[in-house]
């Protein structure tokens, strides 16, 4: 990216002043190298986001931002319904409520020594992953509606997990305001056999070791110590969310002129929050969030079943569950005034700081855990909501390393089998149905995650707590 | 397009790079041919289409206000059929009248060992969405697909 149009506000913050039809500035987080490495399209897309009606404050990109569709991935923007603010299907993404859930095991790597391969095989057999995989739970229309309204609460009521899990999920495991009737027949059909499946692409289940602690007090409060084994599950709302995105992206693009919205680019398709279409999308999108929460809950249950076979005394409590493709109504302070805003986070994690009223009591003193996912051979990170500037970027942080190379480029550089063998030499077991998929997801295709995490930490978006290294990766 | 020999335009499918997702592009002597090739590019994003048999045929009909939305609807219909029927498609036939498309896709059930599908298409997007006739008479149909 050409840095010349940007003003450097600090070592970690860059600003594009409003010009032309931009309503607010664009703010990019990251040190100079990270920003320079970003595709020019990131700036073009966030500049376009800054032109949308009712946008408040600034349009932000996180340090892991990369070229998306509509909003850049790693994009954050807030809209005020009182000022004609909009909701955008492209600002949430197709994989609604894609997110990360981390489980504690109480185990150490030595405990896995005699059974690591068998454990990996069992996880791979039990948790459906990859294209064409199906779950064992088929929902009829009545149960589908209950799932879409209840999210993880529905899943727990069906016996997938424990009631205490719900305290460790955003929104208590159930997104209010879901409207199952707003979810199309096609979306329901796509979900029929996909409950409890990981999906493909960058989705995974990883068994990880806590390799470093950066904040002893917060780590202790989270139940983390150096050398602990944890499990992270990265997936979303599967076919149902994908179809909701498909349905509404089209409808919003076609309806924009009727809503008096001039789109800087068709891909920014959106609708006024206070319109029938905007409300219908919000209802469907919230149902999609519940689908993702139920999905991660079921995968948690399957994971526990596998671990119980090898380690009968492990309970695998949930540390927390975060979503990073959402639009949520939240209260934020703008120029000293508290306002209800609709915060789009696309490839960005909510990062409420200590004392935020929407946090579960467990995290009231620390702030919420923020999970930054790695890419098979690289580390992942656990961070926590900031203390110094809790409203920074509408309480948002990054979500992963962010791609450096396209899938196309990755495929030219790496071979799946060779990568799996190389990672095995490093003690990391990869199980995947597709070696081409592994090549496309090569660790080297992603940015340096430590630089992204450092940038988020120094920019005050979230604070470092722990570093995780992969031991086993079930790749979709 | 006077003087251009349309038969010299070889239909072909290609992928073009995008940050996290993938661009699909079809090129052909007619709009319908470009749509067929764009569908083949969609398969290319998932697996090698050459080994896919034609055991199953699926019919698709779409209607849209313009060519770009027609391409979007065509690709999204295929993504839907692939998802709910667990199929991969290797061959396509498209006819278009105005902005109404009738398509047929032939394929077979996903065989994970043989197809090694790399990614699951989530949906065709409005990004880089374009259907146009080039100066040489070739039609180009393309967009970014979220995977």
The counted number of beta strands of chain A is 19
The biggest beta sheet of chain B reads: 5 strands, antiparallel
User: Based on the structure given, which CATH architecture of chain A is correct?
Assistant: Alpha-Beta Complex
Q: Identify the overall geometry of chain B.
A: globular
Assign the CATH class of chain A.
Answer: Alpha Beta
Protein structure class of chain A: alpha+beta
CATH superfamily of chain A: tRNA-splicing ligase RtcB
Mean pLDDT level of chain A: 95
Output mean pLDDT of chain B: 93
Helix content of chain B: 25-40%
Number of domains of chain A: 1
Could you name the CATH homologous superfamily of chain B?
Archease domain
Question: Main beta sheet of chain A: strand number and arrangement?
Answer: 8 strands, mixed
Share of residues in strands of chain A: 25-35%
How far apart the termini of chain B lie comes to 36 Å
Sheet/helix structural class of chain B: alpha+beta
- Based on Cα principal axes, name the global outline of chain A: globular
Which residues of chain A sit in consecutive blocks of at least 5 with pLDDT less than 50?
none
**In the CATH hierarchy, what is the class of chain B?**
Alpha Beta
Whole-number tally of structural domains of chain B = 1
Protein architecture, described:
The complex is a heterodimer of chains A (476) and B (147). Chain A has 476 residues and is α+β, with helices and mostly antiparallel strands. Chain A has a single domain, classed as tRNA-splicing ligase RtcB (Alpha-Beta Complex). Chain A is built from 14 helices and 19 strands. Chain A has helices at residues 32-37, 40-49, 109-112, 116-126, 141-150, 152-157, 185-191, 216-222, 238-255, 276-310, 407-413, 416-425, 435-440, 449-458, and strands at residues 7-10, 13-16, 26-29, 55-69, 71-79, 86-88, 99-107, 204-213, 229-235, 270-272, 318-323, 325-334, 337-346, 349-350, 369-372, 380-384, 396-397, 429-431, 463-475. In chain A, helix 5 (141-150) crosses helix 10, helix 7 (185-191) runs antiparallel to helix 9 (238-255) and helix 9 (238-255) runs antiparallel to helix 10 (276-310). The longest helix of chain A is centred in the middle third of the chain and has 35 residues, at 276-310. The radius of gyration of chain A is 21 Å and the shape is globular. The mean pLDDT of chain A is 95. With 147 residues, chain B is of the alpha+beta class. In chain B, the strands form 2 sheets. In chain B, strands 1, 2, 6, 7 and 8 form a 5-stranded antiparallel sheet that branches. In chain B, strands 3-5-4 form a 3-stranded antiparallel sheet, with helices on one face. In chain B, a hairpin with a 5-residue loop joins strand 7 (130-133) and strand 8. In chain B, 54% of the residues are buried. Chain B has helices at 31-46, 67-85, 112-115; strands spanning 12-17, 22-28, 56-63, 87-97, 100-109, 123-124, 130-133, 139-146. Chain B has a single domain, classed as Archease, Possible Chaperone, Chain: A, domain 1 (3-Layer(bab) Sandwich), CATH 3.55.10. The interface between A and B is large, with 51 and 39 residues.
